[in-house]
Amino acid sequence: MWLVNADKVLSEILDGEAVIIDLASGRYHAAAGVAATVWGGLICGHALDRIMGDVRRLHTGVPADAETAVQAFIDSVVAAGLAQPAANTGSTSDSRVPAGPEPTPWSVPVLESHDDLADLLLIDPVHDVTELGWPNAAPPAS
Amino acid sequence: MGPKVVRLVAAGPTLLDYYAPAFAHLARLDDSAAADLTILLWDAATTGAPFPRPGTDVPADPMGAVSQHGPVTLAYHQMEQTISMLDVDAALAVFIVRGIEYLPVWDRPAPLRFLLAWWFASQNLLLAHSAAVSSEDGAALIVGPSGSGKSSTALGCLAAGLGYLGDDHVLLDPVQRTVSSIFGSAKLVPEHLQRFPGLMRPDAPRPHDRPDSKMVGWPSVEYPDRMVRTASIKAFVVPVVTRGPSCRLLRSTAGRALMALAPTTMFQTPGFHQLAFSLSVDVVRGLSPYRLELGEGSEHVPAMIRRLLASGEVTV
Q: How far apart are CA B271 and CA B85, in angstroms?
């Protein structure tokens, strides 16, 4: 199972699409369809078998090798720093990923990531200006 | 400002005169009126009061070093040489600047933004990174990060005679489903001046402004009859520059709307990320969002938005 870092990750699932914001990096992500279902399972603290149960319950046409694609998606979530593997001691929650009005077709889960706002967290004015502050730039290091 | 009354009390005229154009379009109440929030302002340069220096343990933060002390939020912005402090329980805020010559060009069109964002959020109101225009049928939020066509779309609508609430930050009430104008300004880049010649007279650049700085225009001064203070939200539009053969309005999703609204609103102001996200979700729920593809023929966009507000439908 995996743990989503609730201290630095905010998310909401709207109409089968998850919006995920990483407060630490400034990156934000979207996960739609099956990807949103898997993300919902991760938030609930579900292990892979229960996540696959959610996928089969909420989506149609799920292929026999779907678990491979789901695991790859989870790996991308971990690589993005949104969750981390945890000891598999069983789901921490009895929550079920909510169903939509009807099952939707299977699609390979993908994490869509954006970093266009991350620069806002990377500028360091403390070192780029003198004690007089803006607009007095510090001289370049000799 | 929106449903709230904010009192600005300044030591000396410098800051009030500097910030007055941004708020000139709002209703001015008698000084004896009860205020929901009082903001005390002064600048060190003209008052002689020394500018407080932060301790050496103030963390570096590109948007201002923010700290929380019970009900008090404090931000020291070294780049701008400003201090913003809000006591939400006392409904009292303080804003100190070293001198207006230290303020960046983007401060004057949207002054006191940190303080207002924090305080409005405590009142379950969202100072959103969004433009808004309106017709007699309601308002359209135009939402997206810088460079998405948000300001161009808002200015095009202003030029076409639609109501104008703002091109960069507007106040959203998720419960009442309204949008209110806070700042009567417009940020202008050279492309705006080329597309809309004569629409506005930008402020002259200051001696220390960078050559590539955005200019500031004042619709509140030049088009007071088109300024709208508050309107019902009827449409949520996410512009995307496609450079295609035409402009199109297409139905979008609540997830895409939240992606357009939340991150840019959250990261533009430190100290209220979680509350801003929660309020953004509340705003987006129940709205029918649209993607506005900006290609050739952008002069037709105001009419498209006017039809969307009137009928709630689009013709592609």
A: 11
d(CA B22, CA B17): 10
| Complex ipTM | 0.87
CA dist B253 and B291 (Å) reads: 9
User: Cα B112 vs. chain centroid, distance in angstroms?
Assistant: 11
Taking the C-alpha atoms of residue B185 and residue B26, their distance in angstroms, rounded to an integer, is: 12
| Domain assignments of chain A as residue spans, ordered by start | 2-128
Of B32, B41, B29, which Cα lies nearest the Cα of B4? B29
**Ranges A31-35, A41-45, B30-34, B64-68: which has the least confidence:** B64-68
User: Looking at CA atoms only, how far is residue A113 from chain B in angstroms?
Assistant: 11
- Which residues of B lie inside 8 Å of A (Cβ-Cβ)? 60, 62-63, 78-81, 98, 102, 104, 145, 208, 253-256, 258-259, 262-264, 266-268, 273-274, 277, 281, 284-285
Q: Is A133 within 8 Å of B98 when comparing Cβ atoms?
A: yes
Residue B45 phi/psi, 5° resolution? -65, -45
Q: Could you say which of B78, B255, B273 has the minimum Cβ distance to residue A19? A: B255
Query: What are the strands, taking DSSP E only, across chain B?
Result: 6-10, 37-43, 65-69, 72-77, 82-87, 92-97, 126-135, 138-143, 163-166, 169-173, 178-181, 186-188, 215-217, 230-241, 248-251, 289-294
d(CA B291, CA A101): 24
What gap in Å lies between CA B42 and CA B44, rounded to an integer?
A: 7
Distance between CA B68 and CA B88 in Å, rounded?
11
Residue A63 has pLDDT above 90, yes or no: yes
Confidence of residue A94 (pLDDT cuts 50, 70, 90): low
Which residue from B63, B102, B255 is facing A14, i.e. has the nearest CB?
B255
Quote the CA–CA distance of A27 and A10 in Å, as a whole number: 11
φ/ψ of B131, rounded to 5, equals -100, 165
B258 CB neighbour count, 10 Å cutoff: 27
Q: Which domains does chain B carry?
A: 6-122 (no CATH), 126-311 (3.40.50)
Query: Helices A34-43 and A48-58 sit at what angle, rounded to 10 degrees?
Result: 140
CB contact under 8 A, A15 and B274: no
pTM of the predicted protein model: 0.89
Dihedral-angle region of residue B199 (phi above 0 means left; psi in -120 to 50 means alpha; beta otherwise): alpha
